[in-house]
Amino acid sequence: MSQTPRAAEPGELLPKDYFRRLITSELFTSRSPLEVDLGCGDGSFALEMARQYPARNFLAVERLLGRVRKVCRRATKAKLENLRVLRLEARYTVEWLLPHASVSRLHLLFPDPWPKAKHHRRRLVQQEFLSALDTILVPGGEFLFKTDHEEYFEWAKVELAMFGRFLPLDWPEDAFFYPQTDFERQWRAEGRTVFHLRVQKPTSA
Ligand SMILES: C[S@@+](CC[C@H](N)C(=O)[O-])C[C@H]1O[C@@H](n2cnc3c(N)ncnc32)[C@H](O)[C@@H]1O
Question: Is residue 205, in this structure, part of any structural domain at all?
Answer without folding.
Answer: no
